[in-house]
Specification:
With 444 residues, the chain is α/β, with parallel strands linked by helices. It contains 21 helices and 8 strands. It has 3 domains: 83 residues, SRP54, nucleotide-binding domain (Four Helix Bundle (Hemerythrin (Met), subunit A), Up-down Bundle), CATH 1.20.120; 195 residues, Rossmann fold, CATH 3.40.50; 130 residues, 434 Repressor (Amino-terminal Domain). It binds guanosine-5'-diphosphate (GDP). InterPro entries: AAA+_ATPase, P-loop_NTPase, Signal_recog_part_SRP54_M_sf, Signal_recog_particl_SRP54_hlx, Signal_recog_particle_SRP54_M, SRP, SRP54, SRP54_GTPase_dom.
Length: 444
């Protein structure tokens, strides 16, 4: 999970502060030391750490804490505010050109995730903002890059402007913009060439493209897992190209968080988006406050709700609720519900968005295994239609057949049936408690 190591350390540090009726200078000193170590261990830039700790220390011994009725809480609030500020404070929005199309130039080193992110961004603009994007293949050095972008475009059903690898990238980009105008497309996302390392030729070419197409945004795509290297890359690209924002990819695999916490402070450029997985819908707008909240174990309920809204079919959810209330819930409905939850992403990622979930001992050691869901699915899929509607039919020979069909032991089949039975009982009780009152619905 993203930031896991840092989250663990910071959370145990601030836990000591919670509920403190008095905060002494010694307490602050100790906390500051622990925060410092936690950040350094997370591979945050040394200078950034120094400034950060200094700020916290100053504020924590100041009047806002001393005069507070809950000094411990106040210190935690300060840490959260400063973490938020470190990552850029407010969420940074994407530009909209007054004269469409809005042109976004994507730059970055090879392998950082530029092509994937171009596709993800186009997808997000279309899905969330109702925009009509055009993807442009300007990485003319690697024929495979053009193919890759075309594949991504095809997968998403988003048009890709490409002219092979013979032409000059500047000309391709210019023609693409004309094409977008003619087709009334409102965003042009230009996927440029990358190299394995920063080199002069690359920078020269990107500078030329920038001068000729005058983009509204220049997004630098960096791999969060490369930590301080990503920060150095960002500094170099920024000094040549004056980028407008950063997209951090592979944050899903970044347990440390050094790049996310340093880039803004070092380059003064905002992190606009975060890549949270390989799939083309796994790009999130970067919200510094929500991220700080996640790191400190306060959860990120807002993102969770947004995810649910994006992925859960409202009509289906209403039907399910109705079924639960009348206790006519079947295994088919159960399967449906599982599909919807699964579409929201890996379970441990979701759990990380719940306040305090990291701290719950029981949960911490449970390996939340998406495979278990696959097993449950296999068992349900091995039932006949009749059995799914009426689990009461189940007898020993049916159970045996289901176990064989799903490749799971009978004990697991039994367990699922029992759980389902208990769930139905609970639903009955709940709808009984609700009585005739239809107005007040309780979700859960
Ligand atoms: P490019 O050379 O910069 O265009 O990089 P690609 O777009 O080809 O991506 C390189 C690899 O990183 C691919 O295997 C992508 O699937 C993977 N990748 C990109 N973004 C993410 C992300 O946010 N999370 C994860 N886990 N993988 C990613």
């Amino acid at each position: 999970m993203a930031f896991e190591g840092l989250a663990d350390r910071l959370q145990s540090t601030i836990k000591k502060m919670t509920g403190k009726g008095k905060v002494s200078e010694q307490d602050v000193k100790e906390m500051a030391r622990e925060v410092r170590l936690a950040l350094l261990e997370a591979d945050v830039n040394f200078k950034v750490v120094k400034d950060f700790v200094k700020k916290i220390k100053e504020r924590a011994v100041g009047t806002e804490v001393m005069e507070s009725l809950t000094p411990g809480q106040q210190v935690i609030k300060i840490v959260k505010e400063e973490l938020t500020a470190l990552m850029g404070g407010e969420q940074s929005k994407i530009a909209v050109s007054e004269r469409p199309p809005t042109v976004i130039m994507m730059v970055g080193l090879q392998g950082a995730g530029k092509t994937t992110t171009s596709g993800k961004l186009a997808n997000l603009l279309r899905k969330k903002h109702n925009r009509k994007p055009l993807l442009v293949a300007c990485d003319v050095y690697r024929p495979a890059a053009v193919d890759q972008l075309e594949t991504v475009g095809k997968q998403l059903g988003i048009p890709v402007f490409s002219q092979g690898t013979e032409k000059n990238p500047v000309d391709i980009a210019k023609e693409a913009i004309e094409h977008a105008k003619a087709e009334h497309l409102d965003y042009v996302i230009v996927d440029t060439a990358g190299r394995l390392h920063v080199d002069e030729n690359l920078m020269g070419e990107l500078t030329q493209i920038k001068a000729d197409i005058n983009p509204d945004e220049i997004f630098l795509v960096v791999d969060a897992m490369t930590g301080q290297d990503a920060v150095n890359v960002a500094e170099t690209f920024d000094s040549t190209l004056d980028i407008t924002g950063v997209v951090l990819t592979k944050l899903d695999g970044d347990t440390r968080g050094g790049a996310a916490l340093s880039i803004r402070a070092v380059t003064h450029k905002p992190i606009k988006f975060a890549g949270m997985g390989e799939k083309l819908d796994e790009l999130e707008a970067f919200h510094p406050e929500r991220m700080a909240s996640r790191i400190l174990g306060m959860g990120d309920v807002l993102s969770l709700i947004e995810k649910a809204q994006d992925n859960i079919d409202e009509k289906k959810a209403k039907e399910l609720e109705q079924k639960m209330r009348t206790a006519s819930f079947t295994f088919d409905d159960f399967l449906d519900q599982m599909e919807q939850v699964k579409s929201m992403g890996p379970l441990d990622e979701l759990l990380g968005m719940l306040p305090g979930a990291n701290k719950m001992k029981g949960l911490k050691n449970v390996q939340i295994d998406d495979k278990q869901l696959v097993h449950v699915e296999a068992i349900i899929q091995s039932m006949t239609k009749k059995e799914r509607q009426d689990p009461g039919l189940m007898n020993a020979s049916r159970k045996k057949r289901i176990a064989k069909g799903s490749g799971r032991p009978i004990s697991e089949v039994n367990r699922l049936l029992k759980q389902f039975d208990e769930m139905k009982k609970m639903m009955k009780q709940m709808s009984g408690m609700q009585g005739g009152k239809k107005g007040k619905k309780k979700k859960g």
